[in-house]
Design brief:
By secondary structure, this protein is mainly alpha-helical. It is about 70% helix and about 0% strand. The protein has 16 helices and no strands. The longest helix is centred in the N-terminal third of the chain and has 19 residues, at about 85-105. The model has no long low-confidence stretch (mean pLDDT about 95).
Length: about 290
């Protein structure tokens, strides 16, 4: 009789079950594969992608409905331990966040250096920039959603706490992971540590650069917004929105339109500017289903 996982798997996790039992359970509910087949498939898929591929065959319901994704993660960890997966990467990032918060608070048990060491060991194994990195990030951000604001704020918070070196290293975590943020997160730290004028000039230059990827231009624009350079953002925001709309990147365009809307709420503007913002909000919402 083929070994299988028992009904307590959701409470106990899968680490205590044999690989044979995990594969046997997959096969019992419609997904038949062995270790070699898993390794071959996993070279071009991440766990969430595998679970989606398996879904049409999967017959498990109730407590067995989420089993494919849990199984895919566990099999990756066992059979391809050197290959980074979004869940393990999220654990490393959450450790960075936890120790970053302790450092900001001056806690004695902060070990940000140890957390950075784990991150540095992971970096060379991350997927290369391109479609595989994009797929990796789409899965990764689902684990970080509730911590996204804290993650985004920590470089500046560390800088304001007088931890410039740690702030720069944390900013570089962002820039390595999300390559469209390159330069922008470190510019936020620079602005908080005595280089505001130069940092703002760099961000303005990057947001203006029509040869730059539009997502990277938005990252520079967003950094300027965080630095409350609202007057600088007004004209740049209109320009970057129009480029995103031209490329039909409406999700991005919607983010830019709302950034412009927040500027109107904070500092107002003349009638012509407010009309331009309203027009772009309407265009973005028409394509994304959003609302004012």
């Amino acid at each position: 009789m083929t070994a299988r996982v028992d009904k307590q798997w959701k409470d106990k996790g899968l680490t205590g079950y044999s690989t044979e039992a995990i594969l046997g359970t997959l096969g019992h509910y419609g997904v038949t594969l062995d270790e070699a087949a898993f390794k071959a498939t996993a070279t071009s898929r991440f766990p969430l992608e595998l679970a989606i591929d398996w879904k049409p065959k999967w017959t498990g319901t109730g407590q067995w409905a989420p089993f494919p994704y849990a199984a895919a993660n566990e099999l990756f960890n066992r059979l391809l331990p050197e290959q980074p997966v979004p869940m393990k990467t999220a654990h490393i990032l959450l450790d960075l966040i936890a120790n970053g918060l302790k450092t900001v608070a001056g806690k004695e048990d902060a070990n940000l250096g140890g957390a950075f060491k784990n991150w540095d060991e992971l970096v060379p194994r991350l997927p290369a920039k391109g479609e595989r990195r994009d797929a990796f990030l789409r899965e990764l951000v689902t684990f970080l959603e509730s911590w996204a604001q804290t993650f985004n704020e920590l470089p500046e918070r560390l800088a304001k706490a007088g931890k410039k070196d740690e702030a720069i290293r944390f900013a570089l975590v962002h820039e390595v992971l999300f390559t469209d943020r390159e330069g922008c997160m470190t510019a936020l730290v620079r602005a908080q540590t005595g280089e505001r004028e130069a940092a703002v000039a760099d961000l303005k230059m990057w947001a203006e650069d029509g040869a730059r990827d539009v997502f990277a231009r938005y990252s520079a624009l967003d950094a300027l917004f965080q630095l409350e350079e609202f007057e600088v953002c007004k004209g740049l925001g209109i320009t970057v929105f129009d480029e995103a709309a031209k490329q039909e990147k409406w999700g991005l365009a919607d983010s830019i339109a709302h950034l412009l809307g927040h500027i109107v709420q904070k500092i107002g503007g003349d009638t012509a500017f407010m009309r331009e913002v309203r027009n772009r909000l309407d265009r973005a919402h028409a394509h994304t289903g959003g609302h004012h």
